[in-house]
Q: What sequence folds into this?
């Protein structure tokens, strides 16, 4: 199985060619933090991973992209590029949450976190396969979602939402039991550390980890596409639909008379 994945939903831009299955796969990835350069970078990145793998687009089985939530322009770029490729090559598409990709990335690196000491987290229990993902959404809000590992894939519990940081406690009340089995990931925990202190203090938390896993990677988007394939939830080109969460993201404020 060959999956061509991409993400431009944040300040980072990435592309990947994943080959194999959930138990045995390899990745060729390009990743760069490059704000406002996505349109210049993403197509050369896709060409680069295809060239290195020795494949052309006709040999790809599935496309995958980060459908948001994230930066409005970036999400549109990814959706437009994947839709054009899907139409041209007649390929199915896996639409992957950028928050799920962040959660999956932190899970994939857990061996590094625990065994090699690359990053340290305080107050963690022995098993950390649950994530509270919070990324800065600007306008004093965060993109937030709860994920738990199921059969190797980070799986959404509840729904993704955009909320004020100071309202997150009320959102979580009666939904989950906060303890050190939950790990906080995403830059929202650092950007709004004061507002989120009471929640982060009950969880496995580290500013270093939050920053390290604040960007979605195409490799994790492609890996999560394996789940979409198994669940038969791939979509056609005309069904590609980005997710913004914030309905008024493109609206300009009305001038008062």
A:
């Amino acid at each position: 199985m060959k999956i061509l994945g991409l993400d431009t939903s944040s300040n980072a831009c990435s592309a990947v060619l994943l080959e194999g299955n959930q138990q045995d796969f390899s990745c060729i990835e390009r990743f760069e933090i490059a704000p406002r350069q996505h349109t210049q970078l993403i197509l050369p990145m896709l060409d680069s991973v295809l060239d290195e793998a020795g494949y052309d687009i006709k040999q790809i089985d599935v496309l995958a992209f980060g459908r948001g939530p994230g930066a409005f322009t970036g999400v549109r770029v990814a959706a437009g590029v994947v839709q054009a490729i899907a139409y041209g090559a007649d390929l199915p598409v896996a639409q992957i949450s950028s928050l799920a990709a962040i959660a999956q990335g932190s899970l994939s690196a857990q061996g590094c976190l625990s065994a090699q000491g690359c990053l340290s987290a305080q107050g963690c229990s022995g098993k950390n396969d649950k994530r509270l993902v919070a990324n800065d959404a600007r306008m004093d809000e965060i993109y937030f979602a709860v994920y738990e590992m199921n059969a190797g894939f980070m799986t959404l519990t509840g729904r993704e939402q955009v909320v004020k940081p100071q309202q997150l406690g009320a959102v979580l009340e009666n939904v989950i039991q906060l303890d050190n089995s939950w790990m906080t990931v995403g830059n929202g925990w650092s950007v709004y550390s004061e507002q989120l202190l009471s929640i982060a203090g009950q969880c496995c938390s580290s500013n270093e980890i939050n920053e390290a896993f604040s960007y979605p990677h195409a490799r994790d988007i492609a890996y999560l596409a394996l789940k979409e394939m198994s669940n038969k939830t791939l979509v056609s080109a005309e069904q590609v639909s980005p997710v913004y969460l914030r309905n008024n993201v493109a609206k300009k404020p009305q001038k008062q008379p």
Observations:
- The two ends are 59 Å apart (CA to CA).
- The longest strand covers residues 153-163.
